[in-house]
Amino acid sequence: MKWDLNNDGDIDSSDKQVEHEVPIAGDSKIKVYYSFIHRLKETELLLEETIYIQAIKKDAIIKLNIEKDTQYVPVTVRFDASQSRVLDQDIVKFEYDYGDGIIEERDAINEGHIYRQAGEYDVVLTVTTDSGEKYSKSEKLVLKTKPDIVKITPSLYDAPAYQEIDFSSDDSSGQIISYFWTFGDGETSTSANPSHSYTQP
Questions:
Q1: CA–CA distance, 79 with 99 (Å, rounded to integer)
Q2: How many angstroms separate the CA atoms of 129 and 27, rounded?
Q3: pTM attached to this predicted model
Q4: Which of 76, 108, 118, 185 has CA atoms 20 to 30 A from the CA of 142?
Q5: With the CA atoms of 153, 159, 162 and 166 taken in that order, what torsion angle do they form, in degrees rounded to the nearest 10?
Q6: Looking at 62-174, which runs of residues are DSSP E strands?
Q7: What mean pLDDT do residues 163-188 have?
Q8: What pLDDT, in 10s, does the model give residues 108-129?
Q9: What distance in Å separates the CA atoms of residue 83 and residue 65, rounded to the nearest whole number?
């Protein structure tokens, strides 16, 4: 398969799938050349197809990219609207509706908003041009609660009797509201990261 994306006689790609951005409004043509092998006659069959595209010039292209390090709350979510464009006008204001009841004006590259509750949010970007015209773009943001994970990390895995050992729960996650440790020798603790020593081997 070969692609002549500009209809100028030159082959621009031989991939099965291509992306092509039409730079100007109006009618344009793309030519695709297929080659097939006839199994019985062992001959090559060439076909040509013309794709007609009618491109319409948009007054505004509003882009909103959402970036996050994790899908679990709490999380700081970043927003990038710097690729937004309005024909023959300058964008002078970027307003973000985060979908959680907070709306604020920020720069095109918004360094972040903190989400503390899991849920599905409709984030809406509204841009205002120097002539006062407004354009909007919405994107969905889905955030989840961290799964419940309990993990114990001791400072020592092999220790003599009476050696104090630190136990950490810092790698645990979830909606933790309390701690209760049993050390296997009848002793307990309600601290998040207790220390304990064993009197018997």
A1: 13
A2: 29
A3: 0.56
A4: 108
A5: -20
A6: 65-67, 72-73, 75-80, 85-86, 91-97, 103-106, 109-115, 119-129, 134-145, 153-154, 165-168
A7: 94
A8: 999 999 999 999 999 999 999 9
A9: 9
Assign residue 18 a region (left: φ > 0; alpha: ψ between -120 and 50; beta: otherwise): beta
- C-alpha 108/C-alpha 81 separation (Å) is 5
- Euclidean distance between the first and final Cα of the chain, in Å? 74
State pLDDT tens for residues 11-57: 999 898 888 887 677 788 999 998 888 777 778 888 899 998 887 77
Domain that holds residue 25: 2-55
For residues 40 and 113, membership in a common domain is answered with no
Residue 44 CB burial class (10 angstroms; 0-12, 13-18, ≥19): exposed
Cα–Cα distance for residue pair 162/70, rounded to 1 Å: 42
What is the Cα–Cα distance from 5 to 1, expressed in whole angstroms? 13
Tokens of 190: 């309600």
Q: Both tokens of residue 7?
A: 């209809």
Contacts 24+ apart (CB under 8 A), 170-176: 173/146, 173/147, 173/148, 173/149, 174/145, 174/146, 174/147, 174/148, 174/149, 175/145, 175/148
CATH number of the domain bearing residue 120: 2.60.40.10
φ/ψ of residue 16, rounded to 5: -70, -35
